[in-house]
Amino acid sequence: MELNSTITCPECGHKADEAMPTDACQYFYDCQGCGAVLKPLAGDCCVFCSYGSVPCPPIQKTGAKN
User: Fold this and answer.
1) C-alpha to C-alpha distances, 51 to 11, 23, nearest whole angstrom
2) Mind listing the pLDDT tens digit for each residue in 14-52?
């Protein structure tokens, strides 16, 4: 299981490597580049599933598609 993901901001393109929580989904993320507050896209459980290079650990465990 991968515990780090690179989030890419859809507003400014800033990329940041982040550690993901292992027991919960993260619903909000503050972009370090432009300050935008990212929220999951419709159908995704968290910001890592929407904007990250790797889906969140709960999705990795279940093997579900985000």
Assistant:
1) 11, 19
2) 999 999 998 888 999 999 999 999 999 999 999 999 999
